[in-house]
Amino acid sequence: MTQDELKAEVGRAALQYVVAGEIVGVGTGSTVNKFIDALASIKDQIPGAVSSSVASTERLQALGIKVLDANEVERLAVYIDGADEIDHQGFMVKGGGAALTREKIVAALADRFICIADASKQVQTLGAFPLPVEVIPMAATQIARRFAAKGGQARLRLKDGQPLVTDNGQHILDVTGLAIADPAAFESEVNQWPGVVTVGVFAHQKAAVCLLGTEQGVETLEF
Question: Where are the active-site residues found (predicted)?
């Protein structure tokens, strides 16, 4: 199967984790888009969704699925999202689509994080994928120096030759050269640096389940 077909398969498989009568948390990205398309087939069973990005909100609404503001919701049964990397403990790197802050906010509302990904995203140690860090622009250079002290190289993410601006009006640094041995400690430390909005390590909001698209079908990993 092609990577696109694998994404569609895990997107459909995630429907089994949607709780009838409950609002569902929806992430961002190409794999999640497949889930959103599948979700339209059972939209009458749910009151709506909480979305982690403008792009996902627009896709949900176009399919007739009501989108609620996160402030209107006390809890979610599940949050379904992809990952750029996931290790064997359910820790993830996310933010390739620039929605990491809102993804973390919605994930924090959920009882369970269901990760949907293809097998290429599974790793032994996080850090090979450039780590996204959403930052307040005036702090970008000093944050880059802090990563350099850890052996990382931080580069400002650009779009059309200009700094990419997130849905929150901030910038993103992508950091290479890291091997994140203790994701929870790393996340806690970097989140304390002045000017960091969110680091793209999801250890405190780790996956409970990963639906992994493989050539043999969807593999279910529980953490």
Answer: 103
